[in-house]
Design a protein that fits this description.
The chain contains eight helices and 15 strands. The protein is of the alpha+beta class. Strands 7, 8, 9, 10, 11, 12, 13, 14 and 15 form a nine-stranded mixed beta sheet that branches. The chain has a six-stranded antiparallel beta sheet with strand order 2-1-6-5-3-4. Helix 6 (210-222) links the parallel strand 11 and strand 12 (226-228). The structure holds pyridoxal-5'-phosphate. Pyridoxal-5'-phosphate (PLP) binds next to helix 6.
């Protein structure tokens, strides 16, 4: 089957270029929207239930009216089947709907706008980054105070990753007003000190990352202890290893932050073990999951 980048807009599947939303859409006007990115391996969404739970939480925290997540997942499966894409990413965005521009929520509520986009993902550049290790730059965290909600209000993240890329870096590590490390622009950040894996404790200042959650679960069977703690940027630079984790890039070792080499300046052993365990978890899940039946296009 030919691969095609497809969108499903409010239940209607079409080539992504044909999917259009109103200029009154509150996602467009206010960024009044939430999203999720799923990684697809062999045509199936990894950590599906976990991503859905986070989506439900984001919707609840932003006081969205009810959204039918079972119907959403039916549409997700139909869009994947129609796309023929096996290795890819699946993007879901839900906005508060279409209404003439006015700050308060529409009253009575209007139907949410729901968009699903399936597209192929080529892991090879990230694979190379995983093998070589990557450089980060540090930047102030200019985001709002509810970074635990996966909203599409990503301007501070966008500005930071742009600056990182202009500096030739893979990602930016964000540092809050108190000088403490939060996370990266679209990755969670973990580090190793004295054999202990550490990360910023979950809270309003970081996204509860799905990959981080999985990796922390995997560390239990690897016998690697974890501790949630805050660090200053200088302490992070002095860690034995620094590791980025995220849905698309999986587990990526950091070998430099600004001008400082991390550890030996090469990818460290914990990052390698965690990525190995991540790959094994994907394989085990694929072996457990029944094949996805090809569905008729909705
Ligand atoms: C700010 C931020 N932190 C962390 C992550 C990693 O989260 P996940 O592992 O769920 O992809 C992302 C992913 O996009 C993100 O945007």
């Amino acid at each position: 089957m030919a691969m095609q980048v497809l969108a499903c807009l409010n239940g209607e599947i079409m080539p992504v270029e044909e999917a259009k939303v109103s200029v009154w859409d509150r996602g467009f006007v206010f960024g009044d929207a939430v999203y999720e990115v799923f990684r697809m391996y062999r045509g199936r969404c990894f950590l599906e239930a976990e991503h859905l739970a986070r989506l439900a939480r984001s919707l609840k925290e932003l006081k969205f009216p009810g959204c039918d997540l079972d119907r959403l997942m039916d549409r997700v499966r139909a869009t994947i089947a129609a796309s023929g894409i096996l290795e890819g990413t699946l993007y879901v965005q839900i906005t508060r709907g279409v209404a003439p521009r006015s700050h308060p929520f529409p009253s009575p509520p209007v139907p949410p706008t729901e968009v699903i986009i399936v597209r192929p993902y080529d892991d090879r550049p990230t694979q190379a980054a995983r093998e070589a290790g990557v450089r980060l730059i540090s930047l102030p965290d200019l985001r709002w105070k509810r970074c635990d909600i996966k909203s599409t209000n990503l301007l501070a993240n966008v500005l930071a990753i742009e600056e990182a890329h202009r500096a030739g870096a893979f990602e930016a590590v964000l540092v809050d007003d108190a000088g403490l490390v939060t996370e990266a622009t679209h990755s969670s950040i973990l580090w190793v000190r004295d054999g202990i894996l550490e990360g910023t404790p979950e809270g309003n200042e970081i996204l509860p990352g799905m990959t981080r959650k999985l990796v922390l679960h995997l560390t239990e069977s690897l016998g690697i202890p974890f501790r949630g703690t805050h660090v200053r940027l200088e302490e992070l630079k002095g860690a034995d290893e620094v590791i980025l984790v995220a849905t698309t890039s999986e587990v990526v070792p950091v070998t430099r932050i600004d001008d400082a080499a991390i550890g030996s300046g090469s990818p460290g052993p914990v990052a390698k073990r965690l990525h190995g365990a991540y790959e094994a978890a994907v394989e085990a899940w694929l072996a457990r999951e029944p094949e996805v039946p090809a569905r008729p296009v909705a």
